[in-house]
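So, can you check what follows?
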Amino acid sequence: MAAVQVAGSLPSEQPREAPREAIPERGNAFRRLSARLCALRPDDSSSARTEIHLLFDQLISENYSEGSGVAPEDVSALLVQACRLVPLNQNHLVSKVSQLIHHLLNRLQVIVDEQHLDFLLAYTISAIHQCSSWTHMEILQALAALVYCNGSKCQKYLPELLGKTGLLMKLSDLAQSDPEVRRAAVHCMANLCLSVPGQPYLEEPYQNICFQAFLTILQSPKSSDMDDITFCMLLQNALKGIQSLLNGGRMKLTQTDELGALLAVLKKFMFHGLPGLNIEMPTVLYPTPLPQYDGRTPIKPQQSESSASRPTLNKKKKSKVKPKKIQQGEEEEKESSGEIEAASVTGTGRVNLHEGNTWSPSSLGVQSLPLDGSGAAGKDGVSSPFSSSSWKRVSSSESDYSDAEGGMQSKMRSYQAKVRQGALVCFLSTIKSIEKKVLYGYWSAFIPDTPELGSPQSVSLMTLTLKDPSPKTRACALQVLSAILEGSKQFLSVAEDTSDHRRAFTPFSVMIASSIRELHRCLLLALVAESSSQTLTQIIKCLANLVSNAPYNRLKLSLLTKVWNQIKPYIRHKDVNVRVSSLTLLGAIVSTHAPLPEVQLLLQQPCSSGLSNSNSATPHLSPPDWWKKAPAGPSLEERSVSSPKGSSEPCWLIRLCISIVVLPKEDSCSGSDAGSAAGSAYEPSPMRLEALQVLALLARGYFSMAQAYLMELGEVICKCMGEADPSIQLHGAKVIFIKTTTLFPSPFPLPLFQVVMFWTMMLNGPLPRALQNSEHPTLQASACDALSSILPEAFSSLPNDRQILCITVLLGLNDSKNRLVKAATSRALGVYVLFPCLRQDVIFVADTANAILMSLEDKSLNVRTKAAWSLGNLTDTLIVNILIFFGKEQCSPGAPPFGNFAFFLILISTFLIRTAMKVRWNACYAMEMLFKNPALPLGTAPWTSQAYSALTSVVTSCKNFKVRIRSAAALSVPGKREQYGSVEQYARIWNALVTALQKSEDTIDFLEFKYCASLRTQICEALIHLLSLASASDLPCIKEILELNGNMVQSYIVQFLKSGAEGDDTGAPHSPQETDQMVRMALKHMGSIQAPAGDTARRTIMGFLEEILAICFESSGSQGALPGLTNQ
């Protein structure tokens, strides 16, 4: 009956037509069987059940694979039809149809669409409720396959699955008697938690329920009725569930106990099944700077697998380890066989990682050859062992393993390795979901520290790196360590051990320094012992992360020297990923706290130093002059590697990078160059790009060494920018930018003619073509940055046609539709407008101003930001020009420069209204300086009203009070009444100043309050100045405003007179006597105005000023009449 109800919830569907394209044979078989199944109708007879059984068996036995021509919707429709044919009272058929769902969805990698998912979920949930318990395992497997990547579409079934009495909660409980059913239920929960980008996440209450369930499983010991392999699979599912919750971005670990409990179980299972080690962890880890408890129990002889996992090496007898190719998708037992032990383990489980207790290939007489490295060179060198496909629907079938493939012991090691990998990947997700400052509270729990004498080394991520038999697990541990070290510069900056500390306690700075030293030692041990090229790449990347963040200026010397000498042989490693990461590490060394004296000495070492180290697990290098073997032909390569004149010992790293970029690759390292194009004569692109990066870093940090190679680097850059690969061109342009920005000022400046030669080479070479390459806007933007790095001295010495080329190209690119190009062009124009040879060019300044104003209206924030910066430079140029103009002794109104300054004034007026605060302040200052020029036709010129309108707008409405102060100061500069223009213009200025005085305390920014008094002082001074220049026709408007706001203006002017003008950015303060004299002069001027008969405005204004003076006189405590006042 239940089956009929479920089946009725989905409308009946007709069999889908086969696609018109040619279908592979397997697709034809599927459609033939699907058609037979769809032709059946529900029938409870024995013959019908037999036929359904046979059809299900045939569908399951088909050899499916992705791309076999079977459409996902056809698979979903077939599964719905199969469920319709199977009533829930037929346990065997329900079990068989569950196997069919699990098999088809897994083999064909199908995610069920929402239309069919609802029916199939209802059917499987009903089956769990109604069918016998022995079918639950297969039904749960089918349910896990259905909900995979469909968690957001299962919302209405979540209460029934994950509620307090939900199916999955019951079946995953510790009280569940069947361990396989419990594991399958946890697998379903993990698949429900898997989030898909662009779809809703699991609701927060269900996230917390699942998290607690997974955490409880990880904290619980293995039950007696559960075998080891099932337990490993259970742990994998729980770890994957937590990882999915954290990766979704919505699950935040904010509680200390919650995070500490998770980190405790992750650390425990990071070492699960590791041969020779069994640790006990507390329930919760707490933040502490001290190493935390990680008790180790002795390993029973029958449990120890160290001899089986990594063979013991005889010191007297050389043993050779043949290289093995690790193909993608191989099982872990194949990875763990035939590998070399990296650290010895005592019988009690102590991991001895000290130099005296470890082996190295040189001491054992073993040369461990690297892997072939035939895998493709990926972004990180090592793919994550827990990609989405790796976690997907773990099968319970044990037929994948047999005694012939390694037996149960090898199978067990493989599952244990997967648990360790799952814990590490989950730890990586945890690191990304919490703040770094929280993570560093647990530093000592996962990072090794130098142990006290006689005490064992604490277990840490380096324990896995040195001891784990699986290359994938070692790579995972290194990825986690890299994630912890990334961005740790501020935390590690407290480390300090330059002096010997002899105290009763160990400072925290010394503990961090000790941890940094131990990381160096362990990573270098791992570097020597590693045989897998992919894991070797991760070790070098981890070292690069450590070098980039460690404070070597506060640490004892020799740490970088050891890394430097160890990594040099790997530059010629057979695997391209190892070579690229080696260059990355060298780049990190030359960029950290540059310039470091220790690194400077390393760069000055002879070329042969450290290159023929036989202790390395890499092939020997060629002789130290290997890069000098340039082929006959063009002289570029020969000149690029020749020693500069006057250089007794050239920098070998610069010569190495130049040779990597320009010289053909050698046959000895071409076997695994996955990054090189077919038929390419040069090193792979990643190798050449990294070499260019190192050159740029050397030019920035160690210019004294790189300056001797200026012309050689110029030829290298020209060669790079002339190539077809845009990425090579891009990095070549970046080298130009970094190289030229360090030319001046420099402790070792180059002769100007050499710099001019360099730029002439660039501008005559491929740089103009890169600027005009509209197909690659990133390259255009980088070329603009390079062009902006030219120095004023060099630019003015360039030929005239090259100068015109630079200006023309930049002004043309400012109209580009690409925002990257437009932002770079705006910045470059802002650099050029400061050049002394260009700032007097009125046409260039005008064109640049128009270009900047256009960019200020762009939709891109980046473009507007760069344009605002350039606008500040432009106003600086205008101020310089104004000062130069103002400094001339003779200027007549008819001189030609006034037309240009009229344009400048209009431009400045525009700046006052539409730009950033710094630019507005500069514009106000420029306007003030212009107004001080007596030869300027202020008041009669047509631009006067626009200039005053901009200043009055700023003084009343600008949010920044310092800009208001500067604009009020500019308004008080004109010394004659006619310079203020018409009566209407004068009235607008007076009204604006009164309004500004009234708003002098209106601000929402607390930081502006400290400028309130200075603003009122400047406005009062401007108002009194205007009164001292007023004409008879101005008096009515003054009287009208005073009648409305006279009390407010009077109170502020009285305060101004009592306290004197406070110091601000407009000049020196005035004394009370000076301010009093200003008011008296204004009063005297009012008395001298010949007002028309019957006009009361003059009398009102004079009474206003006399009252102000009287108030000030009375407050001073003086007796008698006010001096200088008469009754009129």
